[in-house]
Design a protein that fits this description.
The chain has about 140 residues and is mainly α. It has a single domain, classed as Tetratricopeptide repeat domain (Serine Threonine Protein Phosphatase 5, Tetratricopeptide repeat, Alpha Horseshoe). It contains 7 helices and no strands. Helix 2 runs parallel beside helix 4, helix 3 runs antiparallel to helix 4 and helix 4 runs antiparallel to helix 5. It is globular, with a radius of gyration of 21 Å.
Length: about 140
């Protein structure tokens, strides 16, 4: 059976696209692979996996946090700062994320921004204590 070339090309492209996206995995699976590489000390491979996870899901804060950590291990302070701040922005109620971003902001000489993150973290951590005092 002869298939015209105007059909073969789009069908072939669709098959290749499906194969590529099907093999790449979800953002969560990329995060897990990145964690495995980081545990083995292969920071470069971990960075690649975390970057792929973030590319698949830009709102996936856990991958951004791990990417920041991996960038720090590589000595990429600018990358670590950017990813840490993005993660903290995605996790506004996570005191630890705010503190990590604040620490890197402070080290980058951005004291006012760091203070803002510290204030957020303190406010987040103060809420449960105040609520428990009110109920007791």
């Amino acid at each position: 059976m002869h298939v015209p070339h105007w059909i073969r090309l789009p069908v072939g492209a669709a098959v290749v696209a499906l194969a590529v996206t099907g093999c790449s995995g979800s953002a969560q699976s990329r995060l897990k692979r990145g964690n495995a590489y980081l545990d083995k000390g292969d920071v470069a491979a971990a960075v690649l996996e975390y970057r792929n996870a973030v590319e698949k899901d830009p709102m996936f804060a856990p991958a951004r946090l791990k990417l920041a950590e991996a960038y720090l291990r590589q000595g990429n302070g600018a990358g670590a700062l950017a990813e840490s701040v993005r993660a903290a922005d995605l996790l506004p109620k996570d005191a630890d994320a705010q503190l990590k971003a604040g620490s890197l902001l402070f080290l980058a000489g951005r004291a006012d921004d760091a203070r803002g993150r510290a204030d957020k973290a303190l406010a987040i951590r103060a809420v449960p204590r105040a609520a428990s005092r009110d109920s007791g």
